[in-house]
């Protein structure tokens, strides 16, 4: 079944001076999708969003919204709703006037304006504050109003640039839940810019991972987490234990790796071909390792003996640092596993599956 494409970026490039900030960005966004741009500060997220918003023009490439070429079309002709990191409400206007602003510009009649403003204020769960001024609201409330203001015109596309970054942790989580609910309820096509991987995983249908202006991967949260296209993607999303080593042998869909700590590991050979003798980085995530106080002698898994260095109880899980040769390996133990509390200095046995090992070729001999 073919879906409607709302937004299309075709080979979009942007330079500032000789600095390539967005490098041949290609993307199609379906109607109703929520797509995140995720990457470290300075990777080109805001610049890309600004080109979609019409604040910047691409040097190369085409931007298409609802089937129409948008290069050179002014921002106010693009039918967008926007929310930024800093509260961009007009301080001298009431909440009602702030939210109604876009409708006023479009010369929507008064009665209809009032109805639509009240409806979006209810959507963001702030129906009773339309007479107040922005300074009388908390940070979280102000961002809700900013979202209401962006939605009131029923835009084709909602653009959000780090809208939660200025809020404290608890509020950020609350508003994140709220945004997910809203996005699903209204079904507005959304682009969400963030440097926070958890936010991106939580909110998006698909994530675009960016590094230095280049698209590293486009995929569902599951794909990005479980099938990372590069070492950068793997390490940017979630925690992972890194070791270095060399590929010894390939056989039966498995690779045998010799780590620099002296012990061997098995990894699955995925789609990429890595030749024997290749220097590699080897990763395993903390939640993929099981910890045992006795050597179970399990066959066909990776095993390592280690010493507990540090444990941190975090409620739902415990994080345990285990010294294995020259490596400190972090293991995440779910509280439901109900292990006896571990003691520093205790000997433990770690196990993890070959399929949970990520292997990336490593250039040079830097460590
Ligand atoms: N107006 C500008 N002039 C020159 N360089 C800029 C300008 N805006 C952004 N940059 C540079 O472009 C890169 C990407 O910036 P930006 O898109 O804001 O990154 P992000 O939003 O991912 O943090 C950065 O190196 C930044 O310094
Ligand atoms: Mg930015």
TrEMBL record:
<dbReference type="InterPro" id="IPR013611">
    <property type="entry name" value="Transp-assoc_OB_typ2"/>
</dbReference>
<dbReference type="Pfam" id="PF00005">
    <property type="entry name" value="ABC_tran"/>
</dbReference>
<comment type="subunit">
    <text>The complex is composed of two ATP-binding proteins (OpuCA), two transmembrane proteins (OpuCB and OpuCD) and a solute-binding protein (OpuCC).</text>
</comment>
<dbReference type="GO" id="GO:0015418">
    <property type="term" value="F:ABC-type quaternary ammonium compound transporting activity"/>
</dbReference>
<dbReference type="Pfam" id="PF08402">
    <property type="entry name" value="TOBE_2"/>
</dbReference>
<feature type="domain" description="ABC transporter">
    <location>
        <begin position="7"/>
        <end position="237"/>
    </location>
</feature>
<dbReference type="GO" id="GO:0016887">
    <property type="term" value="F:ATP hydrolysis activity"/>
</dbReference>
<dbReference type="InterPro" id="IPR017871">
    <property type="entry name" value="ABC_transporter-like_CS"/>
</dbReference>
<dbReference type="InterPro" id="IPR003593">
    <property type="entry name" value="AAA+_ATPase"/>
</dbReference>
<keyword id="KW-0067">ATP-binding</keyword>
<dbReference type="InterPro" id="IPR050093">
    <property type="entry name" value="ABC_SmlMolc_Importer"/>
</dbReference>
<keyword id="KW-0813">Transport</keyword>
<protein>
    <recommendedName>
        <fullName>Carnitine transport ATP-binding protein OpuCA</fullName>
        <ecNumber>7.6.2.9</ecNumber>
    </recommendedName>
</protein>
<dbReference type="GO" id="GO:0005524">
    <property type="term" value="F:ATP binding"/>
</dbReference>
<dbReference type="InterPro" id="IPR003439">
    <property type="entry name" value="ABC_transporter-like_ATP-bd"/>
</dbReference>
<keyword id="KW-0547">Nucleotide-binding</keyword>
<dbReference type="GO" id="GO:0043190">
    <property type="term" value="C:ATP-binding cassette (ABC) transporter complex"/>
</dbReference>
């Amino acid at each position: 079944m073919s879906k409607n494409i709302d937004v299309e970026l075709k080979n979009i490039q942007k330079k500032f001076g000789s600095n390539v900030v967005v490098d041949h960005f290609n993307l199609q966004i379906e109607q109703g999708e929520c797509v995140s741009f995720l990457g470290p500060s300075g990777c080109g997220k805001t610049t890309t969003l600004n080109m979609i918003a019409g604040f910047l023009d691409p040097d190369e490439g085409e931007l298409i919204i609802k089937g129409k070429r948008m290069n050179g079309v002014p921002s106010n002709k693009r039918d967008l709703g926007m929310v930024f990191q800093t509260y961009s409400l007009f301080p001298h206007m009431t909440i009602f006037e702030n939210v109604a602003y876009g409708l006023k510009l479009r010369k929507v009649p008064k009665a209809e304006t009032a109805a639509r403003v009240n409806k979006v204020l209810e959507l963001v769960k702030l129906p009773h504050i339309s007479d107040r001024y922005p300074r009388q609201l908390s940070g979280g409330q102000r961002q809700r109003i900013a979202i209401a203001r962006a939605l009131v015109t029923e835009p084709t596309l909602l653009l959000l640039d780090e809208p939660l970054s200025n809020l404290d942790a608890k509020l950020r989580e609350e508003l994140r839940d709220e945004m997910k609910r809203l996005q699903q309820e209204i079904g507005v096509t959304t682009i969400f810019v963030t440097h926070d991987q958890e936010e991106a995983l939580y909110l998006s249908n698909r994530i675009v991972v960016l590094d230095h202006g280049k698209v590293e991967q486009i995929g569902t949260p599951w794909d990005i987490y479980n099938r990372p296209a590069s070492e950068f993607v793997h390490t940017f999303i979630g925690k992972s234990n890194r070791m270095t080593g060399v590929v010894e042998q390939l056989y039966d869909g498995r690779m045998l790796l010799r780590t620099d700590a002296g012990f061997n590991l098995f990894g699955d050979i995925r789609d990429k071909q890595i030749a024997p003798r290749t220097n590699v980085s080897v990763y395993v995530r903390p939640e993929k390792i099981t910890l045992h106080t006795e050597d179970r002698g399990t066959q066909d898994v990776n095993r390592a003996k280690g010493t507990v260095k540090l444990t941190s109880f975090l409620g739902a899980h415990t994080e345990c640092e285990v010294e294995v040769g020259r490596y400190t390996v972090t293991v995440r133990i779910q509280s439901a596993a109900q292990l006896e509390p571990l003691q520093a200095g205790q000997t433990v046995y770690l196990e993890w599956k070959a399929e949970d090992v990520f292997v990336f070729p490593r250039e040079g001999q830097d460590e």
